[in-house]
Amino acid sequence: MSPPLLTLKDVRLTFGGTPLLEGAELTVAPGDRICLVGRNGSGKSTLLKIAAGLAEPDRGERFAHPAATIRYLPQEADFAGFETARAYVEAGLNPTDDTHIAQQLLNELGLTGDENPSSLSGGEARRAALARAISAKPDVLLLDEPTNHLDLPAIEWLEATLRAARSAIVLISHDRRFLENLSRQTVWLDRGRTRRLEQGFTAFEAWRDAVLDEEETAFHKLDRKIVRENQWMHGGVTARRKRNVRRVRELGALRDTVRERRRAAGNVRLDAAEGGLSGRLVVATKGISKSYGPTPVVENLSTTIMRGDRLGLVGPNGIGKTTILKMLTGNLEPDAGEVRFGTNLEIVTLDQRRDSLDPNATVQDALTGGRGDQVVINGKARHVASYMKDFLFLPEQRLTPLRVLSGGERARVMLARALAKPSNVLVLDEPTNDLDLETLDLLQELISDYAGTVILVSHDRDFLDRIVTSVLAPEGDGTWIEYAGGYSDMLAQRRGVELTKRQAIEETRQEKTRTTADTAPSVAPKRKLSFKEKHALETLPAEIAKIEVEIGALNSKLADPALYAKDRPTFEAATRQLAAAQTKLENAETQWLELDDLRASLSD
Description:
This protein folds into 4 domains: 6-206, 3-Layer(aba) Sandwich (Rossmann fold); 214-260; 281-484, Rossmann fold; 488-603, Valyl-tRNA synthetase, C-terminal domain (Helix Hairpins), CATH 1.10.287. It is 43% helix and 20% strand. The protein has helices at 44-51, 85-90, 100-108, 122-135, 152-164, 176-182, 204-234, 241-260, 321-328, 363-368, 384-389, 407-420, 437-449, 461-467, 487-518, 531-558, 563-566, 568-603; strands spanning 6-13, 21-28, 33-37, 59-64, 70-73, 140-144, 168-172, 185-190, 193-197, 281-292, 295-306, 310-313, 336-341, 347-350, 374-377, 380-383, 425-429, 453-457, 470-476, 479-484. It is globular.
C-alpha cells in the first residue's frame, strides 16, 4: 500500500463557543478521489485550508509528503499583484514546467490570458483559478466549490479533465452529479468530527441516514439509563456507600454526556406561500427576437408555458438565458415578435446575484420588509424568529446585518423571502447557488409539490433532471429549441438529431455518387423516378402528419407537471417514445425533401 501524501490527525479548532472541529481527520493517498461533505457552516472549507497548510488548528497534526506537490483552489481567488490572468496562472507552475501549459489551459477555458484580473467576472475568475490549480499537475488537488460560477460546458470540461488527471483529489461541492461522477471515497464532516466511507457520493446518503439512525438509538438508550439512575437517586443514598458514591459520579457523567452531545443540525423546512390560481395559459411567445448590437441573443422564438409547467433554461454564461427570463416575465420588451400573458399571474423572482439584498439591513428586516417582527405565510402570521428557524437561523441572528452572513446564509435569506410572498409563478435564476445538498433536496420537494408554474435557470444537471418537464436550450445564432424532459433527456434527443443529420448527409452523398456514375452524358436515357420513389413521395406527407399527431400526444402527456413525480417509468417511457418519434419525423422529412429535389431535377 502506498504511503499517504497528506494526513490530518486529531484536528481541533474553536472560534469561541462550540468547537468547529473536534478530532477531525483526513488521509489522502495516491489515486484517492475524496468528496468532503457536510452542512453549510460545518467547517469543510476550514478543514481544507488546514490541509493546504494555510490555516493553523488549535491542536492536531498535519503531515505532507516532502516530495508531494499540493495545490489548493479557494472559493475566492486572490489576484493581488498580478497584471494579467496569464501571470496569475503561471505563478502556480512548478519551476521546471513549460509556461505553454498555462496558456493552453486558459484557452480551453475560454480566456486569452491578457485579461485584467480586476475586470474578471465571477465565472472568469473561477476559470483562471482552476487553470492555476490544475496547470502544475499536482500530486494532491484540494478543490473548494470548483463549479461555483461555472456554466454547464465549463463544468463538463472540468469533470472530464479531473477524471483524466493523475492527482489525488479532495473535493467540496454542492453539485450532486459532479460528486457522483468523480468521487471514490466520501468523508463526512458532522458536528466537528469526520467519518470516512470507502465509496463515492452515490452511496453516501443511505450510509449517512443509517449512521444517524444508529446514533439516535444509542441516545435513546442513554436517556432511559439516566431515567433509571434518577429513580435510584430519589430512593436515597444509604447502603453500600462506596458503590453509591460511584453511581452518583457515573450519573453526573451521563448527564454531562447528554448536555455536551451535539445533535445533528436540523433540516430546513420549506413552504411556499401560494397565491390564487392563474389562468391555464401563463405566457406565450410568438416569433420573439432580441439582439444586442449585431449579435442575436434570441431569434424567432415561439413557445407556450401553461399552468403547472416546469421549464428549465440552460446554456453557457452570456448566451441569453436571463434575457429570455426577463422577456417571459414582462421585464424586457423583445425587438420583434409578440409576448402574451395569461390572467391572474402572481410572479415571484429569486434573483441570482442577491442584488436586491441591502447589505446593511438585518435578517429580520429582509424577511419582513422592515415592518415589525411578523411574517405572513398563506394568510397566517408567524414570528420572524420562528420562520427563521425553518431556514436554520438562530433566533439571535434576527438583528444580524446581511453583510456578515456567508454566501450560503444569504442564499437562504433570499429563498426565505421569496417563498414568503404569495405566488402562482416562481421564477428562479440559479436557485441552487451556495445551497447545501439537504436544502437542495428540500427545494426540489417544494417545487414538485408547488401548485403553480416554475421557470428556472440552472447549471445543476441533477437538479434539472429532478425538477423540469422541459428544457429550453440554445442551438447557435440566437436559435433556441425546447426539449421534453430534463437535461439528460435533452442530451439524448440532441444525439438522436445529430445522428439523423449525419445519416441524411451520407445518404445524399451516396445518392449523388450513384447518380453521377449511372448517368451517361449523351447516350444514356434520362433517369426517372422509380416506382418505390414515386410511392414514397406520395405517401410520406401522410406518414409525416401521423408522426406529428403522435408527437403532439406525447407532448400533451409529458405536459402533466405531476407525471414525473407520481409515475416516473411512464414519464421515462414517454420521453424515449418522443425522442424516437422526433427522429422518425426528421428521417421522413429528410427523405421527402430529397425525393422532391430529385423529382424537380429530373423534370428540368
